[in-house]
Automatic annotation (TrEMBL):
InterPro entries recorded: Phenazine_PhzF-like
Any one annotated GO CC term: cytoplasm
Entry annotation: catalytic residues: E46
Gene source species: Nocardioides iriomotensis
NCBIfam families with a match to the protein in the record: PhzF_family (TIGR00654)
Name listed for the protein in its UniProt record: PhzF family phenazine biosynthesis protein
Superkingdom in the source lineage: Bacteria
Gene Ontology molecular-function annotations: isomerase activity
Pfam family, one: PhzC-PhzF
C-alpha cells in the first residue's frame, strides 16, 4: 500500500528554511509501529498522520523519529495548512484533536496559521537544578539573565534566559530533563530546553532562541511552536511581559534554517497567563507517495 504525503517548511517565508514537516494522508488505520517507521524514514523532527473529521476538525497523531508525542507546534500549523490547501478544511478556523486534547487553529491569508493553547504547567526553579542545567549547556552562572522557568501548553520546556552572546556557546545537553533526579516535577515526553535572550523592539519583545530535545532524537530544533507557546508563560511569570502581549522569536539561525515565530499571550485580571498563541507561515516543498511498511 502506498500513501500520499506532503512536505512543508513551517515558520518561514521561503522554502528550505524553517522546520521541515511530513504530512502523511490516509493513515488512520496504521499501527503505531508503522507510523514510527515512516517517521524514522523521513527523519524530520516530526511527521504527522491526520484524519479529517469534518470541514472544521481533524484528528492527528504526531511522531518524532524516536517516539509519538501528544502535541507540537510546527506540526499543528503545517498539518492544518496542508489540509486546508487541499480543501479538507474549509473555514477560517478549525479544531485539532491530538494527544494533548483540543487545539484551536486559525488561518490568515494564504500561508499564515495560528494555534491557540491553554497553559498547563508553570513553576520557577533555582539552586542545584539550574547549576547542573547550565553546566550541561556549557554555560556559566554569569551567563544567566533571569530566573529559569518550567512551563508548557501540552509539552513542557525548561526556559533558560541568557545574555545574547552566550547563545553561540550553548551546546546540546547530554541528558534529558527527566534524568535530573533532584527535580521530580520535570517529567515530560518532550524533555526540551529553550535557551533564549530577550531585547525589546517596538511593542513586541524580540527573542533569539535555541531549543534542544536530546531525549527524542531531535538534538536541536530549528523552529519549535510548542516551546514558543510555553515561552509566553515564562515571559509573563518572570516579568518580561507582565500584563501579556506579543513577542517575535528568531530560531534556527545557528542551524542554517532561519525561522520566525510570532507569539502572543493573554492574561486574566490577576495577570496570570490563560491562553497562548503562536503563528507562522507555511511553505510547500514537495509531494509524493510512500510505501507503507508491513505491520
Amino acid at each position: 500500500m502506498r500513501l500520499a504525503y506532503d512536505i512543508v517548511d513551517v515558520f518561514t517565508d521561503r522554502p528550505f528554511a524553517g522546520n521541515q514537516l511530513a504530512v502523511v494522508h490516509g493513515g488512520g488505520d496504521l499501527t503505531t509501529a508503522q507510523c514510527q517507521q515512516i517517521a524514522r524514514e523521513f527523519n524530520f523532527s516530526e511527521t504527522t498522520f491526520p484524519v479529517p473529521q469534518s470541514d472544521d476538525a481533524y484528528a492527528v497523531r504526531i511522531f518524532t523519529p524516536g517516539s509519538e508525542i501528544p502535541f507540537a507546534g510546527h506540526p499543528t500549523l503545517g498539518t492544518a495548512w496542508v489540509l486546508r490547501s487541499q480543501g479538507r478544511l474549509s473555514g477560517e478556523s478549525a479544531t485539532q484533536h491530538c494527544g494533548a486534547g483540543e487545539v484551536g487553529v486559525r488561518f490568515s491569508g494564504d500561508r499564515t496559521v495560528e494555534l491557540s493553547a491553554r497553559p498547563r504547567d508553570s513553576v520557577g526553579h533555582d539552586g542545584r537544578f539550574v547549576a547542573r542545567l547550565l553546566a550541561d549547556l556549557g554555560l556559566f552562572p554569569s551567563d544567566l539573565d533571569g530566573p529559569v522557568w518550567v512551563a508548557g501548553c501540552g509539552l513542557t520546556f525548561a526556559y533558560v534566559p541568557v545574555a545574547d552572546d552566550a547563545l553561540g556557546r550553548v551546546h546540546v545537553p547530554p541528558r534529558a530533563l527527566s534524568e535530573y533526579d533532584d527535580q521530580p516535577d520535570v517529567r515530560d515526553p518532550m524533555d526540551g530546553v529553550d535557551v533564549y535572550s530577550v531585547a525589546r523592539s517596538g511593542d513586541d519583545l524580540a527573542v533569539h532562541a535555541r531549543v534542544f530535545v536530546p531525549g527524542l532524537s531531535v538534538p536541536e530544533d530549528p523552529a519549535t511552536g510548542a516551546a514558543a507557546a510555553g515561552l509566553g508563560i515564562a515571559l509573563v511569570e518572570t516579568g518580561r511581559l507582565a500584563g501579556g502581549g506579543s513577542y517575535t522569536i528568531r530560531q534556527g539561525l545557528e542551524m542554517g534554517r532561519p525561522s520566525t515565530l510570532h507569539g502572543r499571550v493573554d492574561v486574566d485580571a490577576d495577570g496570570r497567563p490563560v491562553l497562548c498563541h503562536v503563528a507562522g507561515e507555511v511553505q510547500t516543498v514537495a509531494r509524493g507517495e510512500i510505501e507503507v511498511p508491513a505491520p
